[in-house]
Amino acid sequence: MESIKVQGVSKRFTTKKGSVQALNSIDLAIEDKEFVTILGTSGCGKSTLLRIIGGLETASEGHVMCHGSQVTGPGPDRGMVFQQYSLFPWMTIQKNVEFGLKEKGVNKTKRIEIAKQYIDLVGLKGFEDLYPKNLSGGMQQRTALARGLANNPDVLLLDEPFGALDMQTREVMQELLLKVWQTSPKTIVMVTHDIEEAILLANRVVVMSARPGKIKDIIDVDLGKQRDYNTRLTEKFLEYKRQASNLIRTESMKVM
Ligand SMILES: Nc1ncnc2c1ncn2[C@@H]1O[C@H](COP(=O)(O)OP(=O)(O)O)[C@@H](O)[C@H]1O
Ligand SMILES: [Mg+2]
């Protein structure tokens, strides 16, 4: 079953300073429960593509289908987590994670229970009553991820969610996300400019070309489902890394 279908999507931004072609005829089909990463150099249109899938931005041409219906705006079937952990500063960690559930009308007992489950999963048990400002960046981002997961959308859209984190925290978060996806598979589309991250997490890596963003290549990542930190050291992983690096390098050179 197809989850997301991007059909002939182009995007041109027009501002006072002129216009920018951010995306050029993107076609991409994502299967249900696939983990797809979108890899590309800065400014190639990754966020724009993800925002169009999320319904936060409209395409200039083409359209996006989600489970057979055309995307015309944001919806509870598609949850987003951004690089800048957009938590509500006036709400506790518990309330932040409960937020989407409350919006959906889930009753109080149930939403407390679900929120606790995900807070636990991301390793924040005991921090429920604190406010975002009392937590480190990594912990805030774990909260944002817990909130995204607690809503249980059909499709989770992640825009460089670990981009602002230090290396160690980033690796812990990548393993956490892998664990989540292994235990309860769902469709995940994640944008990143980090080659290793893109390969470690994905079934398929969609490599974008430099602006105007097009799909340059798609790498099928055959590393099995049980992956962890050590997977990075395998021969197969290194071969994928070489392949992706070569594609990215060609694109970076075009930009310069
Ligand atoms: N709201 C906007 N208005 C004008 N230009 C934009 C807007 N959003 C993105 N762009 C431009 O579109 C291009 C792609 O941006 P973006 O999707 O953010 O790239 P990436 O996420 O790959 O770094 C860039 O040149 C960027 O400046
Ligand atoms: Mg971006």
Automatic annotation (TrEMBL):
Signal peptide region: none
Descriptive protein name: ABC transporter ATP-binding protein
Superkingdom, taxonomy of origin: Bacteria
Lineage of producing organism: Bacteria, Bacillati, Bacillota, Bacilli, Lactobacillales
MF annotations from Gene Ontology: ATP binding; ATP hydrolysis activity
ABC transporter domain mapped to chain residues: 4-235
Keywords: ATP-binding, Nucleotide-binding, Transport
SMART domains: AAA
